[in-house]
Amino acid sequence: MAMVGDAISHAVLPGIVIAFLLTGSRDSVPMLIGAGLLGVLTTFLIEFFHRYARVQADASIGVTFTWLFAIGIILISVFAGQVDLDQDCVLYGEIAYVPLDLWITEGGLSLGPGTVWTLAFVTILILLFITFGYKELFLTAFDPGFAAAIGISTTAWYYSLMTAVSLTTVASFESVGAILVVALLVAPPATAYLLTDKFKNMLLLSVLAGIIASVAGYYLAVWIDGSIAGAIATVTGIEFTLAFLFSPSRGILLKRKQLQPVQH
Amino acid sequence: MILQVDNPVVEVHDLTVSYDRKPVLWGIDLTLPAGALVGVIGPNGAGKSTMIKAMMDLLPVGSGYVRIFDKPIDEVRNRISYVPQRESVDWDFPASVFDVVLMGSYGKLGLFKRPRKADKDAAMEALNKVGMQAFADRQISQLSGGQQQRVFLARALAQDADIYFMDEPFAGVDIATETAIIELLRTMREQGKTVIVVHHDLQSANEYFDWVVLLNMRLVASGPTEHILTQELLEQTYGGKLTVLTKVGELLRKQEFPSREAK
């Protein structure tokens, strides 16, 4: 599942380029739609190769996203003259430029960085999705067989979740790049998983871990005068390592004894 | 011997299921009576799990159809429940025992609705029935095999369905759990529910079920237990497998000299 997020974050590239070529603008909405469609197509292709061609899930993921990402790169290089996109920027992002890309209304009023508005909008959408779909997402993730038996469509929820992942990915990677998106998609939840046994706490802790990594990563980058995205990804790795070593329930150093002797 | 019944709760007609173009179930024609404890028995790879999954339309079906309560399955989803094999889920998933049992109410709640007080009470009562109320807040990763099975059973009970499909509920559980489960299944039968159980132990089958389905890719037999668990039909089901023949001999011997009295 974690690797599907990785795959989506790369595979949406052709969607973004095609949306750009069709509309000729770097407006966020067509890009979100183009990338969202490609994200769903990616999950569909992964499932398709896995189920009907009987390729292993990891191989199916590997084939699908490298191929789609390559198409995106080719599109960028062929239309290089017309496309205001750049491979490095796609991979690494440049968060330092976000404050420069202001959303200025026709009246000349500056509303701050455009990306912040896009991301805020997507965050609200995702929060609504998780709040209203909580029990279905929880059940289909834990026991899809039971969910299907009692009439909850696992396919519909799986693709909705993957659409949500695509949206999040696309909205974020304009500012942070594909690699930091993956770091933030996978590392904070993995850290939270080591720290708690409760699903709701895990959701909250992943958000907290992500925020801490972003803030700490920013100051780390300022301090060492390096890449902000790189520093943030590094902090997510440090958080995971700390949780792995020192988690009270699953950490390898402080593991609580799970089986207490029976008292007679 | 395949006995068909009038007004069946489950009607399977000409069901064929294949994996990768290789058939695992061939032309199953089966009817099951209401209010029975049904055992589905057969050797490994006979398609027992596949059959109950196909009955619930969880697998693509090659041909044939299934009707439950004389309706297509999608119209009666809220009346059926399923206890999957224990190994089919990840028990390290961050959830508590109570979270899992509460899932039993999800089907009836419908989209966007949260479980209410009544659903939580029903979940707690179901835990009580399987003797696990003290474990409500326990993490599912800390349960033993028998406890995991009881949790799955409690989830099905919380659902209050009319027909239950159970995939190997007795596999790898302790004897206390096995006794507790069979007691519950008998209570459910007395309430008029139909319970269909995939089972692998011939010895206990005789004692547990009042209707038995013998399966080995094809339907070998279906009918009341005493007519079905005969040496001839068991040999047809298990073929000439040596180890199994020994078990059959053992079973027949136990039939003459029952080691366990029915409770």
Give a description of the structure.
The complex is a heterodimer of chains A (264) and B (263). Chain A is an all-alpha fold and 264 residues long. Helices cover 74% and strands 3% of the residues of chain A. Chain A contains 10 helices and 2 strands; from the N terminus they run αααααββααααα. Chain A has helices at 2-11, 13-23, 28-52, 57-78, 87-92, 114-142, 144-149, 154-195, 199-224, 228-246, and strands at 102-104, 110-113. Chain A has a two-stranded antiparallel sheet. The longest helix of chain A is centred in the middle third of the chain and has 42 residues, at 154-195. Chain B is of the alpha/beta class and 263 residues long. Chain B has a domain at 1-69 and 163-171 and 193-251: Rossmann fold, CATH 3.40.50. Chain B has helices at 48-55, 97-102, 106-109, 117-129, 145-159, 175-190, 202-208, 225-228, 231-238, 242-256, and strands spanning 10-19, 22-32, 37-41, 63-68, 71-72, 80-83, 163-167, 194-199, 211-216, 218-224. A 6-stranded mixed β-sheet of chain B has the order 6-7-8-3-9-10, sandwiched between helices. Chain B has a 4-stranded antiparallel β-sheet with strand order 2-1-4-5, with helices on one face. In chain B, 42% of the residues are buried. Chain A binds chain B through residues 54, 132-136, 138-139, 141-143, 145-152, 193, 196-199, 201-202, 258, and chain B through 20, 53, 56, 58, 74, 77-78, 80-82, 84, 88-90, 93-96, 99-100, 103, 106-107, 109, 111-112, 114-115, 139, 141-142, 155, 159, 165.
